[in-house]
User: Fold this.
Amino acid sequence: TLSNLEDNISANELGNADVQHLDWLDFLDREGKPAKQPTECFDRLVAADVVYYLSDLPALAAAVGAHLKPNGQGFLLLIERQWTGPLASERATPQDLATALRPYGEVKVTDLMAYCGTLDGQPMKLIELVRKSSR
Assistant:
């Protein structure tokens, strides 16, 4: 929740951080509703473990693309999960996210291994997007 993020900012004494609500769907062209333009764009964007379902990928990719300045870099870290159960076919993989981001710029995927806490030994993917120089 947003209050948890605000608590983390306070606990880590980050004076230059801000928490805001962001609806990914606002940045996706939808029937009868054009994509919203962000109020601010950034040179860097960092996100971790942000997507679980395939249906969320277009909106997430659009939001990331919209918030990066031309040539800006987005870094998204995802756990390489082996989904099981009745919803497994609806779950997104890091490669699915990389594919969704490609229309917005150059995408690079790097294999990593987690070495901390509950993720110790868990394979991960770092997905880097370099935004196209023109929109």
Remarks:
- The two ends are 31 Å apart (CA to CA).
- The first helix runs from residue 2 to 11.
- The chain has a mean pLDDT of 91.
- DSSP finds three helices and four strands in the chain.
